[in-house]
Design brief:
The protein is mostly beta strands. Among the domains are: about 1-120, no CATH class; about 340-405 and about 420-510 and about 530-540, Lipocalin (Beta Barrel); about 550-645, Immunoglobulin-like. It is about 0% helix and about 40% strand. The radius of gyration is 26 Å and the shape is globular.
Length: about 650
């Protein structure tokens, strides 16, 4: 789903109307217009294999990753999509932008894209300009010395460059490198975090490559200057902020003077300063150990949640059970002593003050069942609230989950960190699924999607039909919720009970078409079926909003957009706010600078602009005037601004 929730990409079984290809599975983009939603096929033309080669016939081409606006994608294909692409049954990587022909990037493997043909990493920059991927193929002379594993490459339309190299362009390991799925590539595809494994001797080390400057830094290099610092140990990259400015790693090595224990600890690395900060343990008495899983950072990295065993704080019980902690500028804080599966369900609000998670542990006295429940943690009040309970239930033999049954990880070559949310950016709206009836209106005994808001619980799906509903995620501003069901919830759904996508929007929807007038009774079309009656959750009541406006533009020269510019804007409600500066050049729109932030509440927000690649080119230096556009949800404003981008 796009940030503004007006576009999402999905797949169907069977060719959809207008598709050029897809004997079984096709891909489409749904976009919201002024009168409704329109779906456009994305699948590209390809030849069909012999009928007995089922694995190729099912899905010879899939998208792997999308730009922020979902108009540019990385495609994996086991059939050639361009004249210079690899032959059939060899997997090629392509970039495709809406309305343009596909571009071949590189051969990345052999076989089928769905069955072991490619299981690596393929990510794309938010603006679609750069692609980062890994492969066991040798694509450049510089990686000829690699004897095993994969190398990491970057492509920006001007050719390939090797990523897992030192500042001199030499391979860091003959055993290759691993790029993490936990934001190992920053959203702009400028910073890439990767691990050099210990297979070729030594210990595992974490590095960061800046693709713009062409420099490499060892993130896990020890900064401990004590005489008794312990020996090098394996380091594990466990996460980063989406912009890559802050990264997290675990290791038993004492990387700073503050670390005195020999257990696995969590460290924070700040790109701007190059400083490592110990976040967990440290004292000789600390018997706890951070688990080598995944850290969960806030958008700006100021807070991070992580799992550990044992005692990290003097005030906590010295028990060996699993615990969830929060680390911030005030130290570490125990969130809950709870058990989690191998892939924990943990999600944060934008600033990390609220954490949504699922656990089987009975954390509150009212939780008497042994099934997984959904909890919301508030860091400000240091309190827990169980969300998966209501006036009609909450302790039945039914699990609750914040994951999505319609996620397809085999399509997600960028890994597990796709933009799927069950909590909005403010942390005030949370969503989950369960088959348990928690409110009186839920009478179908099937899986339904629930919304929790400000202490109120309500249904998103109907709760009154004979079909399960699958949660598809909420937009970061909390205004749009996607779900699937076989039920007919709208008169336009006339496919006879097939599975369809629905989106519930605050103040959304479109008027039903009027019935035709003047026809003879026996020739009039049947009236549309009325949608199922269901209660309206308290959270979708309309809000009174003020206007969106630009208050000021702050830069080195007053009122002029330059290399370092901040836009101060007034926003009518919480949500994602974006700003861009653009010009018309050679008959097309050219974006010179972009920025975005999340408004926790209505009022003033600051948006820091960064130049795009076109913004750093000579064309931008010659431009005198441009357009500043600020958008939040459906509200957009634009004004003319003076430019000094190249000066």
């Amino acid at each position: 789903m796009s940030d503004d929730s007006d576009r999402f990409v999905y797949s169907t079984f069977g060719p959809s109307p207008g598709s050029e290809s897809g004997p079984l599975i096709t891909f489409l983009a749904a976009e919201r217009g002024e009168t409704g939603w329109i779906s456009t096929p994305l699948s590209l033309p390809y030849s069909i294999y012999e009928k007995n080669e089922t694995r190729f016939e099912l899905m010879p081409i899939i998208p792997g990753a999308f730009s922020d606006d979902l108009h540019t994608a990385v495609w994996l294909s086991a059939v050639p999509l361009t004249p210079d692409g690899p032959p059939e049954k060899e997997v090629g990587l392509y970039r495709k932008t809406s309305g343009l022909a596909p571009e071949f990037i590189a051969k990345v493997g052999g076989g089928s894209v769905l069955f072991n043909g490619y299981s690596g990493f393929a990510g794309i920059a938010g603006d679609g300009s750069r692609i980062v991927f890994d492969t066991a193929e040798h694509l450049l002379p510089a990686d000829a010395g690699r004897t095993s594993g994969k190398s990491i490459y970057a492509w920006d339309g001007g050719g390939l460059q090797l990523v897992d190299v030192d500042n001199g362009g030499n391979l860091l390991s003959t055993c290759g490198a691993r790029i993490s799925h936990a934001n190992g590539m920053s959203s702009a595809a400028r910073l890439v975090y990767f691990t050099v494994p210990a297979e070729c001797g030594g210990v595992a080390e974490v590095y960061m490559r800046d693709l713009d400057s062409g420099t490499t830094v060892e993130v896990s290099a020890s900064q401990c200057t004590r005489g008794d610092c312990n020996a090098p140990q394996d380091a594990n990259f466990v996460g980063a902020t989406s912009d890559g400015s802050v990264a997290f790693l675990t290791t038993a090595q004492q990387l700073t003077n503050a670390d005195h224990d020999a257990n696995s600890d969590l460290y924070r690395y700040d790109v701007g300063t190059g400083e490592l900060t110990l976040l967990s343990g440290g004292s000789d008495e600390a018997s706890g150990e951070v688990l080598q899983g995944t850290a969960f950072p806030s958008d700006d990295g100021s807070r991070v949640y992580f799992l550990a065993n044992g005692q990290l704080l003097p005030s906590e019980p010295a028990l060996g059970g699993e615990k969830l902690f929060r680390a911030d500028s005030g130290g570490i804080h125990l969130v809950a002593e709870a058990s989690f599966p191998s892939k924990p369900e943990v999600q944060l609000s934008a600033n990390g003050t609220r954490a949504l998670f699922v656990t089987q542990s009975q954390l509150l006295s009212g939780d008497t069942d042994s099934e997984p429940d959904v909890y919301l943690y508030d860091a400000g009040a240091e309190s827990l609230t169980r969300l998966s309970t209501g006036p009609s239930g909450g302790n039945g033999a039914f699990p609750a989950t914040i994951s999505s049954p319609i996620e397809r990880p085999e399509y997600q070559t960028t890994g597990d960190y796709q933009p799927f949310y069950a909590v909005d950016g403010s942390g005030q709206r949370a969503f989950f699924s369960t088959a348990e009836a928690l409110v009186p209106e839920d009478v179908n005994g099937k899986v339904d999607v629930y919304e929790w808001w400000n202490g109120q619980l309500g249904l998103i799906s109907s709760g009154q039909n004979e079909f399960d509903s699958g949660f598809g995620g909420v937009s970061r501003d909390g205004r749009s919720v996607l779900f699937v069901t076989n039920a007919t919830l709208n008169p336009a759904d006339v496919d006879g009970g097939n599975r369809d996508f629905y989106i519930a929007r605050l103040e959304g929807g479109f008027p039903e078409p009027e019935e035709p007038q003047g026809c003879e009774v026996n020739l009039c079309p049947a009236p549309p079926r009325a949608p199922l009656a269901r209660p309206t959750p308290g959270s979708i009541s309309p809000q009174k909003t003020a206007g969106l406006r630009v208050i000021s533009i702050k830069s080195k020269r007053a009122g002029v957009v330059g290399r370092k510019t901040t836009v101060l804007a007034a926003v009518p409600l919480p949500g994602l706010v974006s700003a861009s500066v653009w010009i018309h050049a050679h008959g097309k729109k050219v974006v010179l600078a972009t920025g975005r932030t999340h408004a926790a509440h209505a009022g003033q927000v600051r948006i820091d602009l960064q130049l795009t690649r076109p913004g750093r080119e000579p064309l931008a230096a010659r431009a005198q005037n441009g357009h500043l556009t600020v958008a939040e949800g459906d509200a957009t404003i634009s004004q003319t601004v003076k430019l000094s981008l190249g000066r």
